Amino acid sequence: MTRTLLILFAFVLTLGAQTKTILVLNRSAEDIADWQSVSSKVKLVPVTRDNVMEHIADADAMIGYIKPEQIRAGKKLKWVQTLSAGVETVLHRSGGDDLRDSAIVLTNNQIVQGPEIADHAMAMLLTLTRRIPRFIADRQTETWGGRPYDGIELNQKTALVIGVGGIGAQIALRAWAHGMAVIGVDPEDLPYSPFVKEVVKPDRLDEMVPKADVIFVAAPWTRESHKMIGPDQFEDMKRGAYFIAVSRGGLYDLDALVKALDSKRLAGAGVDVTDPEPLPAGHALWKFDNAIITPHVAGRSDLDRMRMLGTVKENIRRFAEDLPLLNVVDKHKGY
Questions:
Q1: Helix axes 114-129, 132-141, angle to 10 degrees
Q2: CA distance 312 to 301
Q3: How far apart (Å, rounded) are the C-alpha atoms in residues 260 and 235?
Q4: What does the alpha-carbon distance between residue 159 and residue 179 come to, in Å, rounded to a whole number?
Q5: Count of CA atoms in the C-beta half-sphere (13 A) of 313
Q6: What is the pTM of this model?
Q7: 127 three-state secondary structure
Q8: Please, are residues 195 and 60 in contact by the beta-carbon 8 Å criterion?
Q9: Tell me: the pLDDT tens digits for 47-99?
């Protein structure tokens, strides 16, 4: 009897020590080797879009963009890690229900890209308020034409930050440091922040829009937030306000933004994200001198790769040890 129990106990230990297979989509050998060094309890398998279906049935987890047919074929999948902060591509597309309604844990890179995206948002705002494009143009003619100068001071202005998460909280900090009063819009009950004067729920957005000198869009793109800044909101914006969008283009109505610029309601706009994206050649937004358009690059910096890969590395360690993962997404909320 004792021998039987020992054999059974050894068998249970063996089961518990089984290596977990994690597929890694389109990453360098260097990245995979670094991640593999975390634990001998996991086996990282490099895959491409062409061969991922050959391995998905045996996988316990996957790092990278995953498609609905891969979710359906991955009967053993317990965890999916995306490298972006936004998860709309895996949750809000055709077949997204396969992941959303499953028991698979989805994690992302929220918060990780907050500093550089917030820097980008403030850079666009300051470029507009300090009239920098005008002086860049003067370089071509070597003209010292500084007067008259109508630069705008951010001190004592009001910033409305839509989405006070990993990006929005960093924008709020920077806006506050420039002397702005910050109002946040967020569906969650957020902890106290000395940088945010007030936080309201999305149902009070229309009440706050007319108060803002600058509106920053930093919310995730979900079914609830789709086109939340539409024609009515642009029409209600304070004349001379600025509009800055750095999260997803689906949160605002692009035609309404063009109309607000064309009517001179807005003093300027900075957008790193559009819908459609890329912004087509010939689109009306390109013609405005007071519109700064960058091609969805706000999340890139000299430090972002280290943070992004570091978060994934820590989650691999936690998955190997059956510990709670970082940045778990509420799949039904979409963030």
A1: 70
A2: 18
A3: 7
A4: 10
A5: 15
A6: 0.88
A7: helix
A8: no
A9: 999 999 999 999 999 999 999 999 999 999 999 999 988 898 888 665 567 89
For residue range 295-310, list pLDDT tens digits in order: 999 999 999 999 999 9
- For residue 22, give the nearest of 9, 7, 38 by alpha carbon: 38
Q: How far is CA 217 from CA 7, 15, 61, 152, 271, in A?
A: 60, 48, 33, 21, 9
Q: Which helix (H) or strand (E) holds 291?
A: strand 291-293
Edge-first strand listing for the sheet containing 214-217? 198-200, 181-185, 158-162, 214-217, 241-245, 266-271, 291-293
Strand partners, 149: none
From CA 235, how far away is CA 247, in angstroms rounded?
Answer: 22
Task: For residues 12 and 17, give the distance between their C-alpha atoms in angstroms, rounded to a whole number.
Answer: 9
- 138-152 in b/e form (b: 16+ CB < 10 A) is eeeeeeeeeeeeeeb
